[in-house]
Amino acid sequence: MAGSRLRQDPESTAAVTVLKRAVELDSESRYPQALVCYQEGIDLLLQVLKGTKDDTKKCNLRKKISDYMDRAENIKKYLDQEKEDGKYHKQIKIEENATGFSYESLFQEYLNGTVTEVWIEDPYIRHTHQGSGKEQQSNGLQEIKESLWSHGVVLELEYSSSIHDREIRFNNGWMIKIGRGLDYFKKPQSRFSLGYCDFDLRPCHETTVDIFHNKHTKKI
Question: What is the pLDDT of residues 92-129, one digit of tens each?
């Protein structure tokens, strides 16, 4: 769809690039990623439309925007139905030493106003920069529990000697499975290095994140 007429306009270069990627992802049935690119591309085209004075170009841009919006809406309906049927699946591959994958970046999209409970299952914390020894870990979790309580959040802790799976569930139906669990960040080089506090800047271990949706998700 990203036609040659748009390519002749320097202001449309970014829109063409994003929309071309959207069409590629769409053809590969990677619908969640395609939808994001369609939405970004449409926003860029709307900006181009605002700065266009030629009536013919305006008409062409409106037609392209309408076509892309129709396709994006169809994808959104399809994904909504997948969620309704419990078949939705999105996969994110985090490469070795990649950055930009903080907990906030991964989870924020799924933590909407309907979330009132979160269940986290993680077998163990194994690196010293996460807490050296069971006693220190327990003390740290207790401090977190008290801090959350002061903000009206109740943290309940349960321990198991047999758990192996790693998953995070929200009671709005989202379920996230991370291959390495929450332990996918590399140890910071020092307290003053980039990424010590801002996890978006901290390098990651290679892992895969699988995201599912099921409106019937319940606590097990």
Answer: 999 999 999 999 999 988 888 889 999 998 876 555 44
> Is 157 in contact with 134 (CB distance < 8 Å)?
no
Please provide residue 88's backbone torsions phi and psi, each rounded to the nearest 5 degrees: -65, 135
How far is residue 220's CA from residue 211's CA, in Å, rounded to a whole number? 18
Torsion over CA: 117, 121, 124, 129 (sign): negative
Measured CA to CA, the distance from residue 65 to residue 79 in angstroms comes to 21
User: What one-character DSSP code corresponds to residue 200?
Assistant: G
- Residues 37, 38, 39, 41: is their CA dihedral positive or negative? positive
211: closest CA among 98, 70, 79, 100? 79
Please, what's the largest Cα pairwise distance for the chain?
71
What is the dihedral sign for C-alpha 69, 83, 107, 165? Answer: negative
Phi first, then psi: give them for residue 185, nearest 5 degrees: -95, 150
- With CA atoms as reference, report the closest residue to 179 among 147, 200, 210, 148: 210
Model pTM score: 0.63
